[in-house]
Amino acid sequence: MKKENFLKGILWAGLGLFLLTTFVSCEKSTPRKEIGLQLYSLRDSIFQDVPGTLEKVGKMGYTFVETAGYRDGKMYGLDPVEFRNLCEKNGLKFLGAHTGRDLPDSANYAETMAWWDQCVEAHAAAGVKWIVQPFMGSVGYQSIEGLKKYCDYFNAVGEKCKEKGILFGYHNHDKEFSTVLDSITVYDFMLQNTDPAKVMFQLDLYWCVIGGKNPVDYFKNYPGRFTIWHIKDETEIKENGKVDFAAIWPHASESGMKYGVVEVERYNFEPFESCRMSLEYLNNAPFVVLPRN
């Protein structure tokens, strides 16, 4: 009898250990949401300590980064492949970048396009999926003619990127929505006069709202054009901010969104903590669903 009880005890202990191991395994295998961080959010740290900053970002749980530190063929002073390897060492993918040049005139067009050739080559070496220009000069806001020049310029840059397998896009601020030229907003004109095969749009949700527009209206009017979202609010991303993420998110598929990138420009807390809190909110929000890429 004692032997029988002993064997039963071993069996029950073994079953318990199996169930516990299975539960822990399931816990560990739960996939993280594919959420990236625009490193401009940590602009004071990344230029001073690239390895340390990336280590902290990786430990927060972000899955990829988007840079804002390209110059002369390097990312934050590092060789493109070296920077990519450093990201991967910390569990991060290096997927995209913010950079660009202002609209060239006839005198510096060749020099500007040569700059883009070097830029695209550097980012191709690192294996990025997109390059986004996050600004447009005053010419684009002063007249339809000036804005059309920007659209043609972006189409030309987009063609260069496409040849290397990289997406090219434009990132908005608020003026694109609040500026009207000949009865059309700047942003609508850009959407209508850039080639979808060459230029995608990285919609910054916060700046769209601040510009007086509803992102959902753009998703409905221009479906599929918004490959990347910049997920941002006035400060940290939270439930009671200025952007109603819960109302916007059901339209993600219609927008064409494939990647979501957090950007925190203003902080109520230390910058790393603000970025961590933003990710925590998005990971815990049941309505936040992102494609697995």
Structure write-up:
- With 293 residues, the chain is α/β, with parallel strands linked by helices.
- The protein has one domain (36-284): Alpha-Beta Barrel (TIM Barrel), CATH 3.20.20.150.
- The protein contains 14 helices and 12 strands.
- The protein has helices at 2-29, 43-46, 50-60, 80-89, 109-126, 139-142, 144-163, 175-178, 186-193, 205-210, 215-221, 245-248, 252-255, 271-284; strands at residues 35-38, 64-67, 70-71, 74-75, 93-98, 130-133, 167-171, 180-181, 184-185, 200-204, 228-231, 259-262.
- The protein has an 8-stranded parallel beta barrel, surrounded by 4 helices. A two-stranded antiparallel ribbon has the order 3-4. Strands 8-9 form a two-stranded antiparallel sheet.
- Strand 3 (70-71) and strand 4 form a beta hairpin.
- Helix 4 runs parallel beside helix 5 and helix 7 packs across helix 9 (186-193).
- It is globular, with a radius of gyration of 23 Å.
- Mean pLDDT is 92; it is low at 13-30.
